[in-house]
Specification:
By secondary structure, the chain is of the alpha/beta class. The protein has 14 helices and ten strands. Strands 1, 2, 3, 4, 5, 6, 7, 8, 9 and 10 form a ten-stranded mixed β-sheet that branches. Helix 6 links the parallel strand 6 and strand 7. Helix 6 packs across helix 14. The longest helix has 28 residues.
């Protein structure tokens, strides 16, 4: 999600490392005192918080990071009969049906789940997955560009197709990128099954640029990010996250008074991320303890500044930088996992032939 890429802002600036997993065990992970977490490569937690879990539970945590969310989910499905670990973290609502339909998880009702917002509990009848965090994929804009050109930044999907924003937007490939797919799903939610294709025809005619992934879009093409400026990026609109502006502030060499980037709040699509107890896990007891830990107040409050996502636990405090520079969207587009499952592959195929050919 959001986190899969935003942590890269910090990494790109050399400020945190993605191996911030605290104490990890490099042995086989099959003993009863080791719990093995399988995740995408942006898993990050403060060392102290992970040590607290290890101390209180008696389990050592071993972490296997496995590419981006799509890659990690696909590999977990292929190895489900003899899984790499006990817990999987990082399947989001765009990929959830694929994981559930393939029997990736076994049911578990986490302790503290009653304090998690109902809107995030997308498998509440069966509890095969537990919601952990959420974030919003949204178009970000370069404030300086719009100020210099005396142009009002776009606020909605429809705005992006207007002539005054011609050749200004860069987005990610919906077939290869999580934010790219989220932006496509957001447009489908906004314009309906029949309308989104016409919308993308308009975007294409208006000069939208498509690149493979978020790193390239945000670091090379987007004029509003610190690295984009250095790289000579000339696109002042980029598909990123609502939590990108706080990252720009937090990791700036000299902290600015306001974020250099803003969010077009009418372009947001909500992503929720889940953890689950893997079917055939060798240490289900340890896995359950770890899932309980993921919804604990300590972990939920530690998560925003490590993975740039929002906690799902009611009452968990969000850092001041988030509320000031990157509040979550008030009315994001959403889509039921079943609808995503029924349409995702066909939509991506149609999008590819419409936009890339």
């Amino acid at each position: 999600m959001h986190n899969k890429t935003l942590v890269a802002v910090a990494v790109g600036l050399g400020l945190i490392t993605l191996s911030a997993c605290g104490s990890t065990d490099t042995k086989s992970g099959t003993d009863s005192k080791t719990v093995t977490l399988v995740s995408h490569n942006s898993w990050a937690v403060s060392k102290k918080v992970l040590k607290d879990f290890e101390k209180q539970s008696g389990y050592k945590v071993r972490v296997l990071e496995d590419g981006d969310a799509g890659q990690a989910v696909n590999k977990a499905i292929l190895t489900k009969d003899n899984p790499q670990g006990d817990v999987f973290f990082g399947v989001d609502n765009t990929l959830l049906s694929r994981a559930l339909d393939n029997g990736l998880f076994q049911p578990y009702t986490a302790k503290g789940l009653d304090k998690v917002g109902a809107a995030y509990q997308l498998d509440k009848d069966k509890h095969r997955v537990t919601p952990i965090d959420y974030g919003d994929i949204c178009v970000n804009y370069d404030k300086a560009y719009f100020s210099e050109h005396r142009l009002t930044p776009p606020q909605s999907f429809a705005d992006l197709a207007k002539p005054q924003y011609k050749n200004l937007l860069v987005t990610e490939n919906a077939a290869t990128s999580s934010p790219g797919l989220g932006f496509l799903l957001g447009s489908a939610a906004q314009f309906g099954d029949g309308g989104w294709q016409d919308y993308w025809k308009k975007l294409k005619a208006n000069g939208v640029k498509v690149v493979d992934g978020w790193d390239q879009a945000y670091y090379e093409e987007f004029s509003g990010s610190s690295q984009g400026k250095k790289a000579g990026g000339d696109r002042p609109l980029v598909v990123s996250y609502a939590s990108s502006p706080p990252a720009e502030v937090i990791y700036a060499k000299k902290r600015p008074a306001t974020a250099p980037t803003g969010v077009a709040t009418g372009t947001c699509f909500r992503q929720t991320e889940f953890a689950g107890l893997l079917s055939n896990a060798k240490n289900p007891k340890g896995a359950k303890a770890f899932i309980d830990f993921l919804v604990s107040k300590e972990f939920q409050e530690d998560m925003p500044l490590n993975m740039f996502v929002y906690p799902v636990l009611q009452g968990a405090e969000v850092p001041a930088e988030f509320t000031e520079y990157g509040p979550a969207a008030k009315d994001p587009e959403t889509m039921a996992p079943g609808k995503i499952a029924a349409n995702r592959d066909q939509w991506v195929k149609s999008w590819t032939s419409l936009v890339l050919k």
